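Researcher: I'd like a candidate sequence for this fold, 56 residues long. If you have to choose between options at a position, lean toward the conservative one.
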C-alpha cells in the first residue's frame, strides 16, 4: 500500500498489510470522523513489524 484515503465511518481493518512509506499504525491511519475504529494485524511498515493495534 502506498497511498491512503480518509474515511468517516465503519471499521478500517489492516490485516497482513505491507506499507512502503509508513512505519507506525498512527501514520498509516487516515480517519476524518469523530472517533476512529480500526485494527492492525500482522502488518509491516518499511520492513519493520507494526505492533498489533486495536481501537477502541
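Model: Candidate sequence:
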Amino acid at each position: 500500500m502506498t497511498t491512503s484515503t480518509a474515511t468517516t465511518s465503519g471499521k478500517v481493518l489492516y490485516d497482513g498489510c505491507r506499507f512502503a512509506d509508513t512505519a507506525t499504525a498512527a501514520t498509516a491511519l487516515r480517519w476524518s470522523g469523530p472517533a476512529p475504529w480500526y485494527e492492525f494485524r500482522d502488518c509491516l511498515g518499511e520492513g519493520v513489524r507494526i505492533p498489533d493495534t486495536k481501537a477502541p
